[in-house]
């Protein structure tokens, strides 16, 4: 522990400076700050909650192991999303090689949490789950380069410049990928609506 007390409003750079010195409290604040966003990003990318949890855990492990290698010249969120994105892409390549398909995308806890919400009726919950499932299927059907760009821009709300750093290509290419991904997503959702409607 470094002994420096950091507020919850401490910047990523301040926290990471303390993490580099071995401050576990600062590391826990980084985990709290990014865990939900990374889980959402990786889940949308892989379509599997358990895989997403594993990848996010591995992301944080790598960050901690490489804490002395981080250079504050790069935006911390760019660095962490790059690591998570690379691990997710690696997992997708592994799946293609072994043809693995996730068996259960939703845990019993997720289902029980929805049912426990008394403000929603069972039909509303079922409809909501069906819509979410169709959207996730459409996202999963996008080519990985478009999927990543759409998730980072439209779900995570990152600026084009940061996405360009994460994926390692020019801003114009990112804008093109987001646009093409949105168009493909729209077409896929229209096909799903036509099929079920």
Explain the layout of strands and helices.
Blueprint: H1 12-20, H2 24-46, H3 49-65, H4 76-98, H5 108-116, H6 122-141, H7 144-155, H8 160-167, H9 171-196
Helix pairs in contact: 1-2, 2-3, 2-4, 2-7, 3-4, 4-8, 6-9, 7-9, 8-9
Word description of this protein:
With 197 residues, this protein is mainly α. The protein folds into 2 domains: 105 residues, RNA polymerase sigma factor, region 2, helix turn helix motif (Rna Polymerase Sigma Factor, Chain: A), CATH 1.10.1740; 92 residues, Winged helix-like DNA-binding domain superfamily/Winged helix DNA-binding domain (Arc Repressor Mutant, subunit A, Orthogonal Bundle). Helices cover 75% and strands 0% of the residues. It contains 9 helices and no strands. About 6% of the residues have low confidence.
Put the structure in a nutshell.
75% of the residues lie in helices and 0% in strands.
Strand content: under 5%
* Discrete helix count: 9
The CATH H-level homologous superfamily of the largest domain: RNA polymerase sigma factor, region 2, helix turn helix motif
Helix content: over 70%
Give the total of beta strands.
0
CATH topology assignment of the largest domain: Rna Polymerase Sigma Factor, Chain: A
The largest β sheet comes out as:
none
Please report the first level of CATH classification, the CATH class of the largest domain. Answer: Mainly Alpha
Helix and strand string, N-terminal first?
HHHHHHHHH
Round the mean pLDDT to the nearest integer and report it.
82
Query: Which term fits the overall shape?
Result: globular
User: Span from first to last CA?
Assistant: 59 Å
Pairing-aware structural class of the strands and helices? mainly alpha
């Amino acid at each position: 522990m470094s002994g420096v007390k950091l507020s919850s409003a401490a910047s990523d750079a301040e926290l990471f400076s303390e993490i580099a010195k071995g401050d576990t409290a600062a590391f826990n604040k980084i985990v709290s700050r990014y865990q939900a966003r990374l889980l959402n990003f990786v889940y949308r990318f892989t379509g599997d909650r358990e895989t997403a949890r594993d990848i996010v855990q591995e992301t944080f492990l790598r960050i901690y192991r490489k804490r002395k290698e981080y250079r504050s010249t790069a935006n911390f969120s760019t660095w962490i999303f790059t690591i998570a994105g690379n691990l997710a892409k690696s997992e997708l390549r592994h799946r293609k090689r072994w043809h693995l398909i996730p068996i259960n995308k939703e845990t019993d806890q997720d289902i029980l949490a929805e049912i426990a919400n008394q403000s929603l009726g069972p039909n509303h919950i079922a409809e909501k789950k069906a819509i979410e499932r169709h959207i996730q299927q459409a996202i999963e059907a996008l080519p990985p380069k478009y999927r990543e760009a759409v998730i980072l821009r439209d779900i995570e709300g990152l600026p084009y410049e940061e996405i360009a750093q994460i994926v390692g290509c020019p801003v114009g290419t990112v804008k093109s990928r987001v646009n093409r991904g949105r168009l493909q997503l729209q077409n896929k959702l229209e096909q799903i609506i036509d099929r079920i409607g």
